[in-house]
Amino acid sequence: MPKIRDASELDGPACAAIYTPYVTDTAITFETEPPTAADMAARIAEVQDTHAWVVLEDEGRVVGYAYATQMKPRAAYRWSCALSVYIEPGRRRTGGGRALYEALFERLAERGFRTAVAGVTLPNEASVGLHTALGFETIGTYRKIGWKLGAWHDVHYWQRPLAVLPDPPEETS
Ligand SMILES: CC(C)(COP(=O)(O)OP(=O)(O)OC[C@H]1O[C@@H](n2cnc3c(N)ncnc32)[C@H](O)[C@@H]1OP(=O)(O)O)[C@@H](O)C(=O)NCCC(=O)NCCS
Q: Is 94 touching ligand 1 by the criterion CB < 6 Å?
């Protein structure tokens, strides 16, 4: 039975292995050099400190992950975060993306984050489907905003509330 748990630095190699083909073979991410396992471990540690990183594990093996980072560095943005989610290719459309996002939303809301934002390189039927299914509001599309693998790519943005709480917002924890 697949389960979701909080990631640790030990998940660096598995998360790097899932992410690498999306870096090398697609424009889903605009990163062009795959991070090493050690790079990924460092990212997990940093993200766990401030936001949240969850993994999907099946029979002891990590088969997907999702995390949130700061949306933008300027102070007034600090209650908003940017999401990423990756499932290993053979496991897609089996509920993993939804389960990871739901677990992530819970953790982010607990830490006091108010809004989640996601950028999706178009076309990406699965990611558009996931964000629509999970109640994201469509914001708009940057045209020809990234050059990768010999082509310009559009990126569509989505946002979703994480918690409805009284204002002013308390500092995130
Ligand atoms: C996008 C991604 C994370 C979705 O995760 P997933 O585990 O495949 O999706 P789920 O099975 O949880 O699907 C949840 C809902 O999303 C929608 N969805 C998922 N895949 C879809 C597809 N191929 N076409 C249309 N809708 C889709 C559906 O509404 C689905 O609910 P349903 O199966 O009950 O109809 C996954 O496909 C993936 O890793 N893709 C490659 C990396 C990527 O694009 N990441 C996002 C970057 S923005």
A: yes
d(CA 74, ligand 1 centre) in Å: 31
Determine the Cα angle at 84 with ends 78 and 87, to 5°.
Answer: 160
pTM of the model: 0.98
DSSP letters along 105-123, please?
HHHHHHTT--EEEEEEESS
pLDDT by residue (tens digit) across 86-110?
Answer: 999 989 899 999 999 999 999 999 9
Residue of 30, 125, 127, 145 best suited for mutating to test ligand 1, as the one with most atoms within 8 Å of CB: 127
Residue 36 in contact with residue 30, Cβ under 8 Å?
A: no
Distance 122 CA to ligand 1 centre (A): 14
Domains of the chain are 3-161 (3.40.630.30)
- Give the pLDDT confidence of 149-164 residue by residue, as tens digits: 999 999 999 999 999 9
Mean pLDDT of the chain: 97
Q: Does ligand 1 come within 6 angstroms of the Cβ of 95?
A: yes
Name the percent of the chain in helix, strand, coil, to the closest 5. 35, 35, 30
